[in-house]
Amino acid sequence: MKILLSTSEATPLIKTGGLADVAGSLPVALRSLGHDCRIILPAYPEAIENSDGLEKVAELALPGHNQDARLLSGTAGPHKTPIYLVDAPRLFDRPGNPYLSPEGFNWPDNADRFGLFCRAAVHVTMDRCGLAWKPDILHANDWQTGLIAPLLQKTPNRPATIFTIHNLAYQGLFDWHDFERLQLPEELWSMQGVEFYDQFSFIKGGIAYSDQVNTVSPTYAEEVKTLTYGAGLDGLLNYRSDDFCGILNGIDYQIWDPEQDPFITSKYTADRFESKLLNKLALQREFGLPENDSIQLFGYIGRLVDQKGVDLILQVLPGIMDSGAQIVFLGSGNSDLERSLLKLSNKYHTRVGVRIGYDEELSHRIEAGADCFLMPSRFEPCGLNQMYSLRYGTVPIVRNTGGLADTVIDVGAASLSNGSATGFVFDQPDGESLWRAVERAIEFYHRPDVAWQILAMTGMQQDFSWEASAKHYMALYESALQCMTV
User: Fold this and answer.
1) Model's pTM, two decimal places?
2) What is the domain-level CATH number for residue 333?
3) What is the arrangement of strands in the sheet containing 352-356, beginning at the earlier edge strand?
């Protein structure tokens, strides 16, 4: 099967979050199953820098866009995944990340930027670039690719279309003038199309017009069909429920594996679990904390935003400090949360370590060195860090939502008895509920037997590899192709 995966980010080219990990890993898994999967994404400077063997293969003349654009072809990563980069310098050759300016604001021309990208993806999909290659499946991801299915819907001999929602909270909302300027077909502006309460919604286009729609965990697929988590699109998702499902993300164990991780101090396995302590000492040293392998060390990696429950962590920090534990943070986001963490780090400099920003190598060292990983998200479509943590024997503390609910089994009498427990799970998104979970983890850590080590080793034995997830996607692709023949 020939598959074109369209995305706004993908490892190892460019990353701001979990979408990049998925978009970089799924094609590798699909190709290992014998399928011809290629990636298309914008030609950001970082993506160009991290690509191999780039060459221009087409000039692009796209309706609704006056910018010069061309298509570059090359490969990415150790697996040499084939890629296409949409090179429109006036739109993509700029500082900041793919979506935000260096000051942290949305680029004001994001509708134009990703509108052009969607048009380019349509051209590649329909083999209008002289590539002599046409996919059977166009797999679009998140709002930045949401116009591809609407633009393809009436095209003869089009491929089947899949749309994956990685986070429904980010929808790509613009206004009528943006819709008009992009010269989109007038019939798309309707309640059944991309119009969303008088706004222009990219993500709604992907959901409404794709042959199959999915999101990145079974629990999140059910949650987004409710008023609480549906972000105004729960009605549409319920309407499409026969063509909507949840497929749990996988993780790449060639990248995330403590037995072969080049970024950590001491490699280890479940059978050599004691070597994990050397990573803990190194992490304490890196953050300027007292080095003591008997001190419980908590970790957090992620965006510093309310969705991730960072404010809840701030509420329970006094209790963590009183217990004698340490905690390290790596992330960026809300400026108030950043300032609060830095202030606490200065106040409790022997207990709290903070790094503002993102550092891929440091994230590996935190996963390897921490005893516990905090992930108290208010909602979490899938989450990857809790799966990384399990692999690294770093016990996750998570809220019972989305992919966190699908991957972490709470410590309780029954789960301890049958050997299935892998972490600490709490229900309500408030500081009191999080503290009860943290308190249980602190008590469990200080038990005099080897209970903590057994719990961590059970997590290491879980299998969240991409192999199973890729097979689920293949079944989804087959369903989409069947839709085309009905």
Assistant:
1) 0.92
2) 3.40.50.2000
3) 352-356, 326-331, 297-301, 372-375, 395-399, 424-426
Residues 239 and 341 in one domain: no
53 within some domain? yes
Helix (H) or strand (E) holding 353: strand 352-356
Q: Which residue has the tokens 């699909």?
A: 30
Q: What is the mean pLDDT of each run of 10 residues along the chain (486 residues)?
A: 98 91 95 97 97 96 85 96 97 91 90 97 96 97 98 95 96 97 95 96 98 97 97 97 96 93 97 96 98 97 93 95 96 92 92 93 98 97 96 98 98 95 98 98 94 96 93 96 76
Q: Quick check: bond before 12 cis, omega within 30? A: yes
Residue 412 lies in a domain: yes
Range(s) of the domain holding residue 178: 2-250+466-485
Residues 109 and 61: beta-carbon distance below 8 Å: no
CA gap 127, 444 in Å, rounded: 59
- 245 plus 282 within the same structural domain: no
Cα separation, 194 vs 196, in Å, equals 6
Phi and psi at 182, nearest 5°, equal: -80, 0
The answer to whether residues 455 and 473 belong to one domain is: no
How many domains would you assign to the chain?
2
